[in-house]
Amino acid sequence: QEEKKQLTLKVEELERKLESASAQNIEFLQVIAKREESIHQCQLRLEEKSRECSSLARQLEMAIEDAKRQVEQARERAVSRERAAQSKMLDLETQLSRNKTELNQLRRSKEDAERRYESRLQDLRDRLEQSESTNRSMQNYVQFLKSSYDNVF
After folding, report:
1. End-to-end Cα, the chain, rounded Å
2. Which tens digit of pLDDT belongs to each residue from 23-67?
3. Disordered: where is this region (predicted)?
4. 3-class SS letters over 59-83
5. Hey, where are the domains in the chain?
């Protein structure tokens, strides 16, 4: 009976240990369930963040491509404007050269015209002087004739 009593006490103690272990096991299972739920939530958030990162990466790639396209277009416009400016500058230089040539020709023409004018003017002065000289000679002759006729009559 003593042995039975001790065995009963041992059984009761083992049952308490078993209950304690079962309670602890239930707590562990609850903790595990909570951790698994937490892990599941973290995985869902990770998947969502991964999708968001992929979307942002695609948007970034699109933005980079767009920026590259805009840079290329701006470069092409700048090259085009530079070519147009060079062409315009070449046209202006050609026009300037033509204008300088024309100006030089006009200067020479003016100088030639001035020389001809001066020569013509000098000719006219000489002829005027000759004409005046002839006129004076004729007036002197007329005076002489008048005085001769007065003396004769």
Report:
1. 215
2. 999 999 999 999 999 999 999 999 999 999 999 999 999 999 999
3. 75-118
4. HHHHHHHHHHHHHHHHHHHHHHHHH
5. 1-92
